[in-house]
Amino acid sequence: MNGKHLRAALCAAALIASAPARASLFSGDTLDFVADILAWVVLIAAPIIAVTVFWLVHILPERIAEQRHHPQAAAIKTLCLLSLFFGGLLWPIAWLWAYSKPVLYKMAYGVDIVKHGEGEAHEAAAATPDVEEPVQPVPDVEAVVITPIPPGTTLR
Fold first, then answer.
1. How far apart (Å, rounded) are the C-alpha atoms in residues 92 and 90?
2. N or C end of the chain: which has fewer CB within 10 A?
3. What is the pLDDT of residues 114-153, one digit of tens each?
4. Is residue 10 scored above 70 in pLDDT?
5. What is the radius of gyration, based on Cα positions, of the chain?
6. How far apart are CA 146 and CA 99, in angstroms?
7. Where are the domains of the chain?
8. How does DSSP classify residue 117?
9. Predicted local distance difference test score (pLDDT) of residue 123
10. Sign of CA dihedral 127, 128, 131, 132
11. Could you tell me the pTM of the whole model?
12. What pLDDT is attached to residue 3?
């Protein structure tokens, strides 16, 4: 015999001598028990895990905005909440918004970073001017002399 025939004979002998293949490690009642457990996991645990992962992914832009001290973090949080109700359609917008620099906010308030918990104080400080205007003294009411206007005079 030449080399080709020898190889073919060895392969045929190996195939004949191999053990039958099994589809599962388990058999009989054990297989039924494992299938029942797997069905309960798929019916109960998988949806809970899927909803939790969906929720965690949808609050990522909110967390990113808080870490980056984004001044519009409350609006990003609202958009994340709306995205949960709209099936995730608004999530990419919230993600981009969380990573963006608030240019118009910086133009209006002079800063583009707000420490969380201090946002209200910052807005109140931005609303009041830094330089106080001089206060005009109020004239004493009794010191003001009211002169009567003669009849027939027109005021301009």
1. 6
2. C
3. 777 654 545 545 555 555 666 666 666 666 666 777 787 7
4. yes
5. 39
6. 65
7. 59-129
8. T
9. 53
10. positive
11. 0.49
12. 78
Tokens of 60: 């990522």
Length of the chain counted residue by residue = 156
Structure tokens at 122: 């910052």
Cβ-in-10-Å burial (0-12, 13-18, 19+) of 76 comes to: buried
What count of Cα atoms within 13 Å lies in the side-chain half-sphere of residue 63?
A: 6
Burial class from Cβ neighbours inside 10 Å (0-12, 13-18, 19+) for residue 80 reads: buried
Neighbours of 95 (CB within 10 A): 20
Note the pLDDT of residue 45: 92
In this structure, what token pair is assigned to residue 82? 């709306």
What letters, b where the CB count within 10 A reaches 16 and e where it falls short, cover 12-33? eeeeeeeeeeeeeeeeeeeeee
> Per residue, what are the HEC states of 56-76?
HHHCHHHHHHHHCCCCCHHHH
